[in-house]
Amino acid sequence: MNKITASITAVGKYVPDYVLTNKELETMVDTNDEWIVSRTGIKERRILKDKDKGTSFLAIKSAKDLIDKRKIEPEEIDLVIVATATPDMQAASTAAYVATEIGAVNAFSFDLESACSGFLYGMSVAASYIESGKYKNVLLIGADKNSSMIDYKDRTTCIIFGDGAGAVLFEPNSEGFGIQDEYLRTDGSGREFLNVPAGGSINPPTEETVKNGLHFVRQEGQTVFKNAVFKMADVCEKILKRNNLKNDDISWLVAHQANKRILEATARRMKLEPSKVMMNIQNYGNTTSATIPLLLADYEGHLKKGDNLIITAFGGGFSWGAIYFKWCCN
Q1: Would you call 263 exposed, middle or buried from its count of C-beta atoms within 10 A (0-12, 13-18, 19+)?
Q2: Which of 2, 129, 147, 313 could form a disulfide with 117 if both were Cys (CB 3.0 to 4.6 A apart)?
Q3: In terms of Cα–Cα distance, which of 304, 294, 315, 297 is closest to 190?
Q4: What is the domain range of residue 315?
């Protein structure tokens, strides 16, 4: 009997209609289009402007896009995982609400949070449920309303982040496609360099924390940049070596879209041609948990059965890793 692996059989996406361009940001903070593009590669990002809608809205939209394309009945879904750094609210599960709203009445659900590495880790979790043999259809969604934690007076962060969601469906495969190997890491000493200082159990919301803007993202850009470049490239090299893969064997690098220079540095260290690097950061910015599924959705038409993908991410925590994935769909 062939081993069961977890393969992606469908993808979906959603980004809000509102486009926040670099030109508009020039009217909000001391920056300019040339500076932003040269240092990040970002030209625009999508923003969910409706204050009454949260991350669940983005997740539901991407899930419905996948369901419509796959023509799967929501009742067939066994599990819904929502990877997000911006849940709708504390305590109440965003995934539970999403599952109910899409009609996945037979599924259990939970949120998964590991900043920009959330979706990558979610792939590992989803695959484990499929490989157990108990579950047939696992819906993994990466969704973030980053605009909810961005200070649009802080030019170091407001130029980077956007809102969006992407979804993938994992199903069992007996032909050897799907996740082949993974190398996932964390280092908690890095959490001081990228975080939202207040709102958690250490520093709960008070009038003072709000007044001091402690509910917005803060990061030490240079430290995060250096760690991201080194650690993503390092785990990608380890995955290649462990699986006896050469750069010619790799069809695509599917890397978290944090900064164009990070992507280029990772590709150079792997000795990959630029044409093998998926990139859409110019259109969406950093959508945190959503960058990887948005890449898969945008490049779906370029993917061929048997393509070897190296999927990698780096996020707050610090958290990072790489997955070797063999694409199964034409």
Answers
A1: buried
A2: 313
A3: 315
A4: 179-326
Q: Please give the C-alpha separations between residue 106 and each of 26, 101, 103, 201, 256, in angstroms, as whole numbers.
A: 48, 12, 9, 33, 32
Structural contact between residues 218 and 151, judged by C-beta atoms closer than 8 angstroms: no
Tokens coding 282 = 């110019």
Say what the pTM is. 0.97
Q: Percentage of the chain surpassing pLDDT 70?
A: 99
Q: What is the pLDDT of residue 107?
A: 98
122, 197, 229, 136: which is closest to 166 by C-alpha?
A: 122
Active site residue 329: no
Given 22, 137, 286, 328, which residue is catalytic?
286
Residues 45 and 118 in one domain: yes
Q: Which pair of tokens denotes residue 62?
A: 């991407």
Q: Is position 256 annotated as part of the catalytic site?
A: yes
Q: Does 121 share its domain with 204?
A: no
- pLDDT per position as a tens digit, 231-259: 999 999 999 999 999 989 999 999 999 99
Question: Measured between alpha carbons, how far is 10 from 38 in angstroms, rounded to an integer?
Answer: 34
Residues 92, 230 within the same domain: no
Of residues 137, 146, 173, 256, which has the active-site annotation? 256
